[in-house]
Design goal:
Helix content: 55-70%
Number of helices: 8
Shape: elongated
Order of helices and strands: HHHHHHEEEHEEHE
Oligomer: single chain
Strand content: 5-15%
CATH architecture of the largest domain: Up-down Bundle
Number of strands: 6
CATH class of the largest domain: Mainly Alpha
Low-confidence stretches: 1-7
Length: 282
């Protein structure tokens, strides 16, 4: 009987540890995310440039905080259940609460990474200073925080911009994450079926970036070449070797969208991300 009591107490202690670890994981990510958000606000108000938009920053902070609260509350539910007498349903309740705490902790990390991407996007348009380098390093640490870091493909795109200056920040953050991740493709298409153009950003296995524009038969090749595109096999291609200034491909694509593809708002676009290998251009 004493052995059974000892085993039960050891089991309870293990479950307590698991619950506290999940809450600690969520809280650590929340703290890092809050710090990144403060860095993002500082970057927005950089003395020389200033007022660079960070679309969705406050929403991300709020969602991250809500998820942290959910994870901690679920962990507290586990601790409460462990203080009560076990019955036939106790095991299921404890397991469900532990899983809920884990899911919420992963959601905290997801929002933290989205804030990190905004930091990368903001620093793209600022002069290289100690502050921007510090913010970029902090963002990379956040992206690689957990034992199994999630890529942008895992997290999925999160865009809430309605203006092109906001979209530029989002897209720069996406490309920054892609260069860190490698081997992925981000596609931009028009929602309207009448506009069949497609832009593919691809990052290869060493961090080199390429952009390909296809389905834009109505544009003038000479104007596109003057802008910075190359004509390759009936499509337009641009390439940049790592390390690269992310602002260059962003400028090229945003200018193409506005001036040559006549897109008036990023709300007219559909973006997607997927894992990929090298694209063969013919």
């Amino acid at each position: 009987m004493d052995d059974e009591i000892l085993i039960l107490e050891e089991l309870r202690e293990d479950i307590r540890y698991q619950a506290n670890q999940r809450a600690a994981r969520a809280t650590q990510s929340w703290l890092i995310g809050r710090g990144l958000a403060a860095e993002a606000q500082d970057l927005q108000m950089a003395p020389m440039e200033g007022n660079t938009p960070a679309p969705g920053l406050f929403t991300a902070v709020r969602m991250m905080g809500d998820s942290c609260t959910d994870s901690c509350n679920a962990a507290d539910t586990v601790l409460l259940l462990l203080r009560q007498e076990f019955d036939a349903t106790s095991g299921e309740k404890v397991e469900a609460a532990l899983e809920a705490s884990s899911i919420a902790a992963r959601e905290v990390e997801r929002w933290m990474r989205r804030i990190a991407a905004l930091c990368i996007g903001l620093s793209t348009y600022l002069t290289n200073t100690d502050e921007t380098v510090r913010a970029d390093r902090a963002a990379v640490v956040a992206l690689k925080l957990v034992n199994e870091p999630m890529t942008l493909v895992d997290d999925g795109l999160w865009h809430c911009s309605t203006r092109f200056d906001e979209f530029s920040t989002e897209l720069a953050g996406d490309l920054g994450r892609m260069i860190i991740d490698h081997d992925c493709t981000l596609t931009i298409e028009a929602i309207d079926a009448e506009d069949s153009f497609r832009i593919d950003f691809e990052v290869d296995d060493v961090g080199n970036l390429s952009a390909r524009l296809s389905g834009a038969e109505h544009v003038h090749p000479s104007a596109m070449v003057e802008l910075g595109w190359k004509v390759v096999g009936g499509t337009f291609l641009a390439e940049w070797d790592d390390p690269l200034p992310i602002s260059n491909p962003i400028w090229l694509v945003i200018t193409t969208l506005q001036e040559h593809l006549h897109v008036s708002s990023p709300t007219e676009l559909r973006c997607s991300i997927e894992q990929s290998g090298p694209i063969a251009y013919v």
